[in-house]
Amino acid sequence: MNKMIIYSSQYGTTEKYAKELGTKKTIPVYSNQEIPATLLQTDEIIYIGAIYMGKISGFEKFAKKYNSLESKLTVISVGMYNPKRESNYKDIEKSVKASLQKTNFLLEDIFYLQGKLDVKQLRFKDKILVNALYKSSKKKNANELNENEMDIIEAYEANSELDLSKLDSILEKI
Ligand SMILES: Cc1cc2nc3c(=O)[nH]c(=O)nc-3n(C[C@H](O)[C@H](O)[C@H](O)COP(=O)(O)O)c2cc1C
Fold it and tell me: 55 CB under 6 A from ligand 1?
């Protein structure tokens, strides 16, 4: 069965996950900006995308453009909010399924990975937004914070490398 990994990434986190996945599973990897024509002959597509404002970037457009394909599809989201929290993964699931409604894709699975926020790297508009979210969260007392605000503080202050071992559980299933 031939497979292809497509990724959408603004700042490189998702690209790193995608390339690691591609290397470990020997699957070709392409950016969603450079999808080759061979996609049309692919039996199984793995779309891995960063989440921006609650949606997997580029996914809706991808689904619309290739709506007639009958390939199997696995979706992996990468975001800063804890992917194990039900409210977060349910929202992503809903948005993925909405994008796939008028398509022929056969959705196999959706996986969720923790991303990384490198504030120094952010472009001006994104930096303003993230700084505002961080500052308003930091102003609150610990007991007033909701879970997403805690995640924002944690992601903002973290300076560790991306943990590629988070892919391990997905590697077994792809
Ligand atoms: C402007 C902005 C909006 C974001 N919105 C969300 C979001 O709604 N949910 C989430 O889980 N992560 C969100 N993130 C975090 C990114 O998904 C995370 O940093 C991810 O690792 C970025 O991947 P990339 O480096 O491949 O672009 C946001 C980040 C930025 C800068």
Answer: no
On whether residue 54 sits in a domain, the answer given is yes
| CA diameter of the chain | 54
Q: Is the distance from CB of 149 to CB of 140 less than 8 angstroms?
A: yes
pLDDT digits (tens, 9 = 90+) for 66-96: 999 999 999 999 999 988 899 889 999 999 9
pLDDT tens per residue across span 3-21: 999 999 999 999 999 999 9
95 and 151 together in one domain:
no
Residue 49 in any domain: the answer is: yes
Quick check: CB of 9 below 6 Å from ligand 1? yes
pLDDT tens per residue across span 120-152: 999 999 999 999 999 999 999 999 999 999 999
Give yes or no: residues 108 and 71 share one domain: yes
Compute the distance from residue 81 Cα to the ligand 1 centre, in Å: 8
Q: Is the pLDDT of residue 159 over 90?
A: no
Q: In total, how many domains does the chain have?
A: 2
State which residues form the domain around 86.
3-116
**Cα–Cα distance, 97 to 167 (Å, whole number):** 23
Instruction: Answer whether 58 contacts ligand 1 (Cβ < 6 A).
Output: no
Amino acid found at 145 = L
